[in-house]
Amino acid sequence: LAKTTQPISMDSYEGQEVNITCSHNNIATNDYITWYQQFPSQGPRFIIQGYKTKVTNEVASLFIPADRKSSTLSLPRVSLSDTAVYYCLVGDNDYKLSFGAGTTVTVRA
Amino acid sequence: GAGVSQTPSNKVTEKGKYVELRCDPISGHTALYWYRQSLGQGPEFLIYFQGTGAADDSGLPNDRFFAVRPEGSVSTLKIQRTERGDSAMYLCASSPGTGGATYQETQYFGPGTRLLVL
């Protein structure tokens, strides 16, 4: 499984855009990049998945450069309810998700 | 539809006791997973079921841990002779289990069972 590195924590304010960059230098050709979100006392929840370029859904955008050695999760106009831990995962058809410690995002009023 | 459910939500037990944690996956999902999450850490894989069989149990920490899924739906994680170090959040997830997919299949997690061993 490709190893990922992401910041331990990030602080933001309501209404701002939050960008979390994940480094995955050893990503394999068939690997996809997936992000999960976890609120306190809940299980993780799928946010977005991509392979290359840009993916956007109703929750977030995922930017992946051509070399795919990193990716950036973008949360537009965050609110207090976006305070959570965000995990970057890399793999292809892996049933064993490898979460790491994730990035704790704290949104303040 | 209903998501993954886990019971109990909290379990307090004494060292040495036996506990069972239950997981009801999303209806129709053939793949089921158990993870364990300690405070401040991400979830760690324990075991993966495809249907009734355990396809990979390499994450189970020792032989005190066992899981079953006899009818291919509900699963039970069993812990014998509990130790204080077993205290953690135990998460269950399920996915459709479509074989041959090239993408990473989304796993749908339950709310977890918080186990405290005194």
Q: What are the main properties of this structure?
A:
heterodimer; A: 109 residues; mainly beta; five-stranded mixed β-sheet; four-stranded antiparallel β-sheet; 9 strands; 0% helix; globular; B: 118 residues; seven-stranded mixed β-sheet; 47% strand
Which helices and strands, and how do they pair?
The complex is a heterodimer of chains A (109) and B (118).
Chain A: E1 9-13, E2 18-23, E3 32-38, E4 45-50, E5 53-56, E6 61-64, E7 70-75, E8 84-91, E9 103-108
Chain B: E1 5-7, E2 10-13, E3 19-24, E4 31-37, E5 44-50, E6 53-56, E7 65-68, E8 75-79, E9 88-95, E10 108-109, E11 113-117
Parallel strand pairs in B: 2-11
Antiparallel strand pairs in B: 1-3, 3-8, 4-5, 4-9, 5-6, 7-8, 9-10, 9-11
Kindly describe this structure.
Chain A is mostly beta strands. Chain A contains no helices and 9 strands. The model of chain A has no long low-confidence stretch (mean pLDDT 93). Chain B is mostly beta strands and 118 residues long. In chain B, strand 7 (65-68) and strand 8 form a beta hairpin. Chain B is globular, with a radius of gyration of 14 Å. The chains are: A mainly beta (109), B mainly beta (118). Chain A binds chain B through residues 30, 32, 34, 41-46, 49, 51, 85, 87, 89, 91-102, and chain B through 4, 31, 33, 35, 40-45, 48, 55-56, 59, 91-93, 95, 101-112, 114.
